[in-house]
Amino acid sequence: MFDIKDLYQEVIVDHNRSPRNFGKLDDADTTLEGFNPLCGDKLTLYLKTDGENISDIAFDGSGCAISVASASLMTDAMKGKSLEEAEKLFNEFHKLVTTDDEYDAEYLGKLAALAGVKDYPARVKCASLCWHTLHSALHGENTPVKTE
Amino acid sequence: MNNPEPANNMLDNISRFDVEKVRADFPILKQQIHGKPLVYLDNAATAQKPKQVIDVISTYYRETNSNIHRGVHSLSEKATAEYEAARDKVKQFINAASTKEIIFVRGATEAINLVAQSLGRNTLTAGDEIIITELEHHSNIVPWQILSQQTGATLKYIPINDAGELMLEEYEKLLSDKTRIVAVGHISNALGTINPIKTIIDKAHAVGAKVLVDGAQAVPHTTVDVTELNCDFYAFSGHKLFGPTGIGVLYGKEALLESMPPYQGGGDMIQMVTMKESSYNSLPYKFEAGTPHIAGVIGLGAAIDYVNELGLDAAAQYEHELLLYASEQATQVDGLNLVGTAKNKTSILSFTLDGIHPHDIGTILDGEGVAIRAGHHCAMPVMERFKIPATARASFAFYNTRAEIDVLFEAIEKCKKVFN
Hints:
The complex is a heterodimer of chains A (about 150) and B (about 425).
Chain A: H1 10-17, E1 30-36, E2 41-49, E3 54-62, H2 65-78, H3 83-98, H4 105-108, H5 124-138, E4 145-146
Parallel strand pairs in A: 1-4
Antiparallel strand pairs in A: 1-2, 2-3
Helix pairs in contact in A: 1-2, 2-5, 3-5
Chain B: H1 7-16, H2 19-23, E1 32-33, E2 36-37, E3 39-40, H3 51-64, H4 74-93, E4 102-105, H5 108-123, E5 129-133, H6 142-151, E6 154-158, H7 168-174, E7 179-185, H8 197-206, E8 210-214, H9 226-229, E9 233-237, E10 248-252, H10 254-259, E11 270-273, E12 278-280, H11 294-310, H12 312-330, E13 336-338, E14 348-353, H13 358-367, E15 370-371, E16 373-375, H14 380-385, E17 391-395, H15 402-418
Helix pairs in contact in B: 3-11, 4-11, 5-6, 12-15, 13-15
C-alpha cells in the first residue's frame, strides 16, 4: 500500500526542520560545493581531517527536505569516523538508495530512514548529492560536484 | 481574458462548456496514479493528446507511411498531400499570409535557434543590441547569448515588477537605433503573465528592429493572429497544443525568410547540388532539410482541427474561470505564496509553501495523484528575480475541472500535515 510517509519518515522531517551540523566550519581544511543543476539543490560541505579521521564536518546551503535531511544525517554519522570507515559507509549508503539489496539496518542506524528514496528515482539525486560531495572531497577533488 | 466576466456569469460559462465530453476525448486522463484518479495539472510542460490526434498518427503509420516530396508512388503522394494540408491548417490557425511562411521545425526552441543563427549571425555585428526579457524561458535566452558571443552584439533584458509584469517604461529606455532584434515570450511559462506583445512589437518596429515572439505557452490558450500582431517571427511547439512532441512551427514574414540563408543543409532543401556548390529550394523548403517529422506534422494538423472544433475562445474563457477559482482558494491557504500575480494572466498558478521545498510538494502531490511541475521551469532568471530557488506550478487546460482543483488544495493541506 502506497504511503508517502514511507519517504517522509519522522527522522527526515525532523532533520529537515532542524538540520544538525548546519553552518560554516571556520577551521575546515577542505571546502567543496555540491550542486544539482536540474533542481537547484546547493550545498557547501566543510571538512576537517587529521589525515586518518574526520575530526569535524558541517554543511550549509539550500534544498529539498530529502537533500537537507540526508546531509544532516550524513554529517552526524561521519563525525569521528576514520577515512576507511567513511568509504565503507558511503558504499553502504549508495547501496541503500540505489538497489533492492538487503542492507545492514543496524550499521546504517538513522540513515536507514532514507531507504524509501529508492522508490522515487527522481529523488535519489537529492539524497546522494551530499554523499558524492563528501566522497569527492575525501578523494582530493576540488571541482564542484554535480548530480543529475 | 483581459476583463474577467462578472461572478454571475461565471456559472453560466462553466455550465456551457461541456468538460466531461471533452475529457472523454483524452484517454490518458482515465488512469489512476498510486490508486487515485490522475489529476493532470502540468499542462504548461506538455499537454495531453486527444484520441483524434492519436488516431491520426496511428492511421498514418498503419496506412500512409512514406517519404514526402520525392516519391512518384501513391503512398508518397498521399503522405505529401497530408503533410502540406497540415501546413495550410497552421497558416489559417495563426492567420499567416502564405504557406511559404510556415516552417516546420522540432519545436519552439529550434525555431528560435533558427532565427538567431540564420538572421542574427548573418546580420548582427559588434555594437548591435538584442532585447529580451527577464521572464523568458531558457529557450528564448540561450540562443541570444550564443548569438551575442558569436557577433559581439549586446544582450539587454526588460525587467519585471513584483507582480511578474514587464516594465514597459524600462523597455522604452532600452530601445534605440542600435536595437536589431527584440525577442519576447507571448505568455510566461513560469508565471502565466500575458505580455502586451502588440505594444512591444510596434515600439520595436519604430526603431527598425525585428521581433520574434515565443508563443509556446500562448497558442493553447489564446487566438493568435500574426498578421494583426505584425510580428516578424512567431514560434510555437505542437506538444503544448495537444499535438505530438518533436514538431513545432516557425512563422516568418516571407520577405525576411527569403533574405535569410539556410539554417541546415541536407536533402529536400536544395534545388540543385553539384560537387562544387548547391542552389537552394524555395520557401518554406529552404529551411526544412532532411526527412521531416511527417507523422508529427500530420498530428499537429489534427490537434489544430481539434481546438478549432472545440473553440479556443470558449476553452480559454473556461480555463480563466478555473484560474480564478484556484487563485481564490490559494488565498485561503496559510503559508501559501503566489508567485506571479499579473493582472493579465493565463491558467498558471505558481506558488511556494512556507518551510516546504517545491520538490517535496511535487512528490507529496504525486502521492495524491496530482501531477504538477516543481523547479525553476527553465526560467532561472525569474527565480533569481523573486529570490527563490524554485516554485511549485499547477497549470490548467480546458479538460481540468473545479473538482480537480479541490483535490489539488486537499493535497496541499497534506503537504503541510507531513511537515508538521
